[in-house]
Amino acid sequence: xxxxxxxxxxxxxxxxxxxxxxxxxxxxxxxxxxxxxxxxxxxxxxxxxxxxxxxxxxxxxxxxxxxxxxxxxxxxxxxxxxxxxxxxxxxxxxxxxxxxxxxxxxxxxxxxxxxxxxxxxxxxxxxxxxxxxxxxxxxxxxxxxxxxxxxxxxxxx
Length: 157
What we know:
This protein has 157 residues and is of the alpha+beta class. The protein is built from three helices and four strands.
């Protein structure tokens, strides 16, 4: 048997608040989605002025990042991104009825070496989405004293 950490609503809300604060700093209207380790939505917030497509995109980014244990942009990062033409997972984004995202804005949530969920950010450009996502991870790290949270853009577990 294994004891597992579980991401809960308290942490998801804390991450969303940090993400919204950073969104305002970088002048982006974002949608933020957080899923658990099973890809199930815990929390979602679409900021005023954010695109109406944001919720579906943010959920897909969070689902992909958590489920595949890697930041979504790494699928297309040169030269070995697995979703690039000719590589082992080319076309993977066409799987799972639109739930798989292979572009910037999705990050696994890794605590003490275990993926406990994912966060998806949609609404800004790649640089903005990355800043917002890492700010949310930093807030979780500060909140979880005594736990190690990976806080970087390029996460591959």
